[in-house]
Amino acid sequence: MSTAPARRWTRDRVERAVLGVLRWVVIAVLVVATAFPFYYMVMLSLRDIQDLILRPGALLPSEITIGTYREVLASEESGGQGFLTFIRNSALIAIAAVVLTLAIAIPGAYAVARLRFFGRRQVHFLFLAVYLFPAIVLAIPLFVLFTMMGLRGSLVGLVLVYISQTIPVTAYMLRNYFETVPAGVEEAAAIDGCGRLATVWRVTLPLSKPALMATGLYVFMIAWNEFLFALLFLVERREKWTVSLGLSQLAGSIEIPTTVLMAGSVVLTLPIVILFFAGERLLTEGLTAGAEKG
């Protein structure tokens, strides 16, 4: 009775087996390293302060409470921290920044990608020149300018500051994507009687949804999380504060329990996490598209 010959452990087989195991080990480590801090933050926000004092190292609460979120979201008149107002302010600023940034960056990016004019290449690189200067270098001149214009302490002034930083990089990203849209598609639209604006609206923008989603989410994240300029322009008017300013106040107070601070952190982080996972596919396509021609 013959038996099948034993498979030899060649170098290639050993390397494949080791790399196969290491791949899952690395994935598991990365998942734990990225997910555990958020998990622990959520668990702390759902714990009672007495439970935290008695069992500081516990990973699961003995009893779940949402009282911390009530305290964070309730208005100051009700004894809370007023985060609902901060969320509204942050949402208004972030949405306005996204809309204005895309409205200005789309025509600029399309012009650089499709039109031929003197200095075209120089304009392309000037898009990113603003990032040669640290934000703190621009903070003082902008503070003085907006104070003279009467915009300090207003949400409108903060939106203007944000779009001045997001328009260049948004135009740069969209320009790379617009160059991947086949010119023949736009030429066919022109043959059908579409003008330049109609072609952009009916052809180019629908084909560029992944890039628009990616850049829009990028701008939203910047406006939602930004702290330095919000502190400079809004610190004197609490009713205009953003979520990042409110969280900074919680972190700097010794009277605020850790559980309430973690609830504020969840409120700041959760909208971005939801938006990211909701648009993850389009975000990935938008960030990688145009890499060959960029």
TrEMBL record:
Limits of the ABC transmembrane type-1 domain: 87-279
GO CC entries: plasma membrane
Pfam families xref list: BPD_transp_1
Residue intervals passing through the bilayer: 21-42, 91-113, 125-149, 211-234, 254-278
Keywords recorded for this protein, A-Z: Cell membrane, Membrane, Transmembrane, Transmembrane helix, Transport
PROSITE patterns associated with the record: ABC_TM1
InterPro entries: BP-dep_ABC_trans_perm (IPR050901), MetI-like (IPR000515), MetI-like_sf (IPR035906)
Mode of membrane association: Multi-pass membrane protein
Record-linked SUPFAM superfamilies: MetI-like
Subcellular localization, as worded in the UniProt entry: Cell membrane
GO BP, one annotated term: transmembrane transport
Stated family: Belongs to the binding-protein-dependent transport system permease family.
PANTHER family: INNER MEMBRANE ABC TRANSPORTER PERMEASE PROTEIN YCJP, MALTOSE TRANSPORT SYSTEM PERMEASE-RELATED
Protein name as it appears in the record: Transporter
